[in-house]
Design brief:
Layout: H1 48-70, H2 76-83, H3 87-115, H4 117-137, H5 142-168, H6 173-204, H7 209-225, H8 241-264, H9 269-289, H10 305-336, H11 340-346, H12 351-359, H13 361-387, H14 397-424, H15 431-469, H16 474-482, H17 484-493, H18 498-534, H19 544-556
Keywords: Membrane, Transmembrane, Transmembrane helix
Transmembrane segments: 53-80, 92-112, 119-138, 144-167, 179-200, 206-227, 239-259, 271-290, 311-332, 344-365, 372-391, 517-546
Organism: Mycolicibacter terrae
Length: 557
């Protein structure tokens, strides 16, 4: 399942250069280059071995908190039976963690910059461990689980930006892309690892073993993190508490509305009001930040084409892949009949191109540039999603596996370059905030992907199945149209006639999944076109027409 940036006077003017030359001043928001001008300066104190150990610890940290986003999906059935949780409570046992983490990422990143990034990592791990122990030691009621997961989200918000900012401030330029690539690859693969791990735990043990496992992992990682070096903002810039409050409220309201949309409908007053309010709070945050001497996030940095490209790339990638996970997990378990463990194994091909391309980032990014890497990656991702439309009710695993490799290759191609672009646009003393922006775009994109894929799936399923169930009593129609799982439950009670309902429901689901895949692929393809036009190329420059427009705009001011 991460919703998803600088404290810098980006108004410093670029030196007088020709409009066709890359700007050389660090780092102006309207700079046309995607080089490391604003990138972090490496620590001269760390040996190669220390940097490798730091990479291991930080990769384990991001693996822990991101895998927890989807970890309970494999155990929701057992949790519902044992605790009596309603469907709404089950939703918030999963999404409460994501909501709290997403809204606190930027404030937590700023605190790490100000007081120390290792300290933020340690505090976050301690909170995460305590919150993971609470359901098994204090209360395993539905409300107790929701509260514990939300507290764990506080810890995750501190851990996530700290893991990336510790890396970007420690690695020299010639090694940084590879380190960030590995971190980004682990981050993108973590959801699959989390689902597989918890599926294994629930298959051979009680669902509370998931919380024990997370607590033990957090404690062990805390011990390991004591051995890594720290870094922080040497200027001790004051925290912008008003900005922190505004952005936390904006993200919280917006993400809450997105999570509720599939349940209530996008036209529901609460959902519409929340989306408008969240957007308004975000705009107010930007207005306030422009008027502060020490803002939490100088929003003018988004004038940089590399920053905007990286943010769009990450948001779109997680929008598409989390929406895809939502679809394919139901397809494999309900239509194909796989267990949770078999589903996790079936999705393993996703990890291979992701990690392979992550390690190759230092080789292909300088050669291809940001434009081809991100636009090409999103285009390949869209192609993989469109190819998934070839999957049907009776498809073999091979029919599923090769589109998985295609879309994963697209993810791997654009994942690390997008992250590198975001962190490289921000100075070293604000890497915690830069990392938080990178993480927030992931969370918001993922939440939107699940919500829109779920809404499209629900509408398409109802439309496709309605004619087939019109011959059944009203109660059967209502339950069958609710979801594929409910249709199966009704079919089991209907005896011989239920097999026909089961088959019709499967075909309706696959038809609806096709519509959702078209939507996800269309968004990814549209983003690829925007990036292909807007992003800087291998030279670090945008297309001449965009450079001339930016040049005229600067001189008009």
């Amino acid at each position: 399942m991460s919703a998803s940036t600088v404290l810098l006077d980006v108004e410093s003017a670029a030196p007088a250069v020709g409009e066709d030359q890359p700007l050389a001043a660090p780092p102006a928001p309207d700079a046309d280059s995607v080089t490391d001008r604003g990138a972090p300066a490496p620590s001269p104190l760390l040996s190669a071995g220390s940097r490798r150990w730091l990479l291991v610890v930080c990769s384990l940290g991001v693996l822990l908190v991101i895998s927890s986003v989807v970890s309970l999906n494999a155990a929701l059935g057992a949790i519902a039976v044992d605790t009596g949780a309603t469907q709404s409570q089950l939703t918030w046992i999963v999404d409460g963690y994501t909501l709290v983490m997403a809204c606190l990422l930027l404030p937590a990143g700023a605190l790490g910059d100000r007081y120390g990034r290792r300290g933020a990592l340690l505090v976050g791990l301690a909170i995460f461990a305590d919150a993971s122990l609470a359901p098994v030691l204090i209360s395993s009621s539905p409300m107790g689980l929701i509260v514990a997961r939300m507290i764990a989200g506080i810890g995750a918000a501190a851990v996530l930006p700290a893991t990336l900012s510790l890396l970007t401030t420690a690695f020299p330029e010639d090694e940084r892309n590879k380190a960030v690539g590995i971190w980004a690859g682990v981050c993108a693969s973590s959801a699959l690892v989390g689902f597989a791990g918890t599926a294994l735990l629930t298959q051979f043990g009680y669902w509370t073993t998931i919380f024990w496992a997370f607590a033990v992992a957090a404690i062990l990682l805390y011990i390991l993190a004591l051995s890594i070096p720290s870094s922080k903002d040497p200027d001790a810039t004051p925290i912008d508490w008003w900005g922190a409050l505004l952005i936390a409220a904006a993200v919280a309201v917006f993400v809450y509305s997105v999570i509720e949309a599939p349940l209530r409908g996008w036209s529901d007053g609460l959902v519409m009001g929340g989306l408008v309010t969240g957007t308004a709070l975000g705009l107010l945050f930007g207005w306030v930040e422009l008027r502060l001497t020490h803002p939490l996030l100088d929003v003018r940095v988004f004038r940089r084409p590399d920053m905007l490209t990286g943010s769009l790339g990450i948001t779109t990638m997680f929008f598409a892949i989390f929406g895809f996970f939502f679809l394919v997990m139901q397809y494999l378990q309900l239509v194909v009949g796989y267990s949770a463990m078999q589903t996790a194994i079936a999705l393993c091909p996703l990890a291979v191109p992701l990690m392979a391309l992550a390690s190759l980032t230092p080789w292909y990014l300088p050669r291809l540039g940001l434009r081809i890497s991100v636009a090409g990656g999103l285009g390949i991702l869209a192609t993989g999603l469109f190819c998934m439309r070839l999957v049907h009710v009776d498809s073999s695993y091979v029919d599923l596996a090769w589109p998985l490799v295609v879309l994963s290759s697209g993810m791997g191609l654009c994942n690390a370059p997008s992250t590198t672009a975001i962190t490289g646009a921000v100075p070293p003393n604000k890497q915690g905030v830069a990392s938080a922006v990178n993480d927030a775009t992931r969370e918001v994109g993922g939440a939107l992907g699940i919500a829109l894929a779920g809404s499209t799936l629900a509408a398409g399923y109802t439309k496709a199945l309605a004619p087939a169930v019109s011959v059944y009593p009203d109660e059967v129609q209502e339950l069958s149209l609710g979801s594929l799982a409910q249709a199966f439950a009704i079919a089991d009670r209907l005896g011989p006639t239920g097999e026909r309902l089961r088959t019709d429901a499967k075909y309706a689901f696959v038809e609806a999944m096709d519509s959702s895949l078209v939507m996800l692929g269309g968004v990814a393809l549209a983003a690829a076109v925007v990036v292909a036009i807007w992003a800087p190329g291998a030279s670090g420059l945008q297309f001449p027409i965009l450079r001339r427009a930016a040049y005229r705009g600067r001189h008009r001011r």
